[in-house]
């Protein structure tokens, strides 16, 4: 029996068919597309109709292969949303979380609601682009969207609504808004009202694995497919990615490595205390009542932006080529804190890295290899820093690190991560989110018992690459310089 998983990251989306054969997962990628944000004047938007078009293309490709999936699940990046008006139509183009309209919004919100109160109610880390600050920005700017909005749907809720006609809010993604209260298991009505937002926009929240309707007749007719059931998976891509980590048991540490690097550990209950608040860790909802105690690290976004800039300038090289050049460049010449706020918005990344190095008295060579090396080494060192914080906060020791996601194709980064943390790295599967999406569908369909059986099946189905730590002294010395330069 074949199922279909759509996984949309901030840089690209894909549709994969999955089959469970003799307790092994077979996957077939049938569609892949880039996800290109669109700048309109000062605003940065997602091209959501194009993304919906690509979702439909996935079904067309399945049909061309004579496959009618038994069910469908969609996961995407978190925090972003669309607002639906009384006619059932999307109001405006969804904003990209990197739009500058949230600049300074956190501080504004804290004047109305104390920061500690927000953390106690939600357990979510403070990121300038969380949904709560995006909505506050719309409100502050007197956006007509908020006046007319009847329903709030996050990006996967919206794409699923387009397919089925049913509006539901999925739990794992809802938690990333910083307006969901894990202790009550529902939207935090008081927080929403104190923000001056309309509580009734926020709909019923369903758990990963819930039945989320079927492809609606008009879509079936348009594409020539049946009324295929749609399952609400862990629709936050990181929730799906962590569900697919092939760990044997808890505790385990993971790094979901794509546009973002998400590092942490899976816990059974949210950890909402003074230390989590101080270290700015998050508790995002997951599969089977679990939570992801993790921290965002800026990730390969910085390399993506360098690549985009060089591509535009006609000096384009593939990720594989950039990694090769980084491997050939001189080690440990300069370091950045990848999480410095200057690296969040798009554009001018090389100049910003250069400015960071100048301000911290470091010399950075002009070659792409040197620049990419600086970013990748800094990421690996930041992973060590956050892994140690995760150990401190969770009061657990990890004997290695699981890495999943597109970033593990960068073998240099996997090896440097092992070197930096001084522990083994186990890398795989590369399509973590899509596979996590699939296993929730199989659990919902009764074909897998639970997350632990699913993780065993994943271990048996996919190659996991082992990286042993090397060059320990050099990385230890580098860590000292990194923490000094970055002030961590
Ligand atoms: P997202 O889901 O956030 O869009 P992915 O998980 O697809 O991101 O990972 C994208 C990242 O993977 C890119 O930023 C790039 O750094 C890395 N990557 C992709 N292909 C390769 C490759 N062939 N070699 C090295 N790195 C790669
Ligand atoms: C990764 C991700 C991450 C969020 C960010 C907005 O794709 O979902 O978990 O913090 O995008």
UniProtKB/TrEMBL annotation:
Domain of life per record: Bacteria
UniProt cross-references to Gene3D superfamilies, sorted A to Z: 3.30.420.40
GO biological process: glycerol metabolic process; rhamnose catabolic process
InterPro entries: ATPase_NBD (IPR043129), FGGY_C (IPR018485), FGGY_N (IPR018484), Rhamnulokinase (IPR013449)
UniProt key word Metal-binding: no
Entry-linked PANTHER family: L-RHAMNULOKINASE, SUGAR KINASE
Protein name (database record): Rhamnulokinase
Pfam families xrefs: FGGY_C, FGGY_N
MF GO annotations: ATP binding; glycerol kinase activity; rhamnulokinase activity
Domain Carbohydrate kinase FGGY N-terminal positions: 3-241
Domain Carbohydrate kinase FGGY C-terminal: 253-444
Statement: the UniProt record of this protein carries the keyword Disulfide bond: yes
Keyword annotations from UniProtKB, A to Z: ATP-binding, Disulfide bond, Kinase, Nucleotide-binding, Rhamnose metabolism, Transferase
Family, similarity comment: Belongs to the FGGY kinase family.
Gene Ontology annotations for the cellular component aspect, listed alphabetically: cytosol
Originating species: Paenibacillus algorifonticola
Lineage: Bacteria, Bacillati, Bacillota, Bacilli, Bacillales
């Amino acid at each position: 029996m074949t199922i279909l998983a759509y996984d949309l990251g901030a840089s690209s989306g894909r549709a994969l068919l999955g089959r469970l054969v003799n307790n092994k997962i077979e996957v077939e990628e049938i569609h892949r597309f880039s996800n290109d944000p669109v700048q309109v004047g000062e605003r940065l938007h997602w091209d959501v109709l194009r993304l919906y078009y690509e979702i439909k293309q996935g079904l067309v490709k399945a049909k061309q292969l004579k496959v009618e999936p038994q069910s469908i699940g969609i996961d995407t990046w978190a925090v972003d949303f669309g607002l639906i008006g009384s006619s059932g139509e999307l109001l405006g183009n969804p904003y990209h979380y990197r739009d500058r309209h949230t600049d300074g919004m956190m501080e504004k919100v804290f004047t109305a609601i104390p920061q500690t109160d927000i953390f106690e109610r939600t357990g979510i880390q403070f990121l300038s682009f969380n949904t709560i600050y995006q909505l506050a920005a719309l409100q502050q700017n007197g956006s007509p969207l908020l006046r007319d909005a009847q329903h709030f749907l996050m990006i996967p809720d919206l794409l699923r609504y387009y397919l089925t006609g049913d509006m539901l809010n999925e739990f794992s993604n809802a938690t990333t808004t910083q307006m969901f209260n894990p202790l009550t298991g529902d939207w935090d009505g008081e927080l929403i009202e104190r923000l001056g937002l309309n509580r009734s926009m926020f709909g019923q929240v369903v758990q990963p694995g819930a039945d989320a309707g079927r492809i609606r007749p008009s879509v079936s007719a348009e594409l020539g497919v049946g009324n295929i059931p749609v399952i609400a998976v862990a629709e936050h891509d990181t929730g799906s990615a962590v569900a697919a980590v092939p760990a044997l048991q808890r505790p385990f540490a993971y790094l979901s490595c794509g546009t973002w690097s998400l590092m942490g550990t899976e816990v059974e209950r949210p950890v909402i205390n003074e230390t989590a608040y101080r270290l700015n860790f998050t508790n995002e909802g997951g599969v089977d009542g679990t939570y992801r105690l993790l921290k965002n690290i800026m990730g390969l976004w910085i390399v993506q932006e360098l690549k985009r800039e060089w591509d535009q300038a006609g000096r384009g090289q593939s990720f594989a080529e950039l990694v090769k050049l980084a491997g050939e460049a001189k080690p440990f010449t300069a370091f950045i804190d990848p999480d410095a706020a200057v690296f969040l918005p798009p554009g001018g990344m090389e100049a910003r890295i250069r400015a960071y190095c100048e301000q911290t008295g470091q010399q950075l060579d002009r070659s792409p290899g040197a620049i990419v090396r600086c970013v990748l080494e800094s990421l690996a060192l930041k992973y060590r820093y956050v892994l140690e914080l995760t150990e401190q906060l969770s009061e657990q020791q990890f004997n290695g690190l699981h890495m999943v996601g597109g970033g593990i194709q960068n073998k240099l980064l996997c090896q440097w991560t092992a070197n930096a943390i001084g522990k083994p790295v186990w890398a795989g599967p590369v399509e973590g989110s899509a596979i996590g999406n699939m296993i929730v569908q199989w659990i919902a369909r009764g074909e897998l018992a639970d997350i632990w059986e699913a993780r065993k099946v994943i271990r048996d189905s996919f190659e996991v690459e082992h990286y042993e730590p090397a060059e320990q002294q050099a990385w230890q010395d580098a860590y000292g310089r990194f923490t000094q330069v970055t002030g961590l």
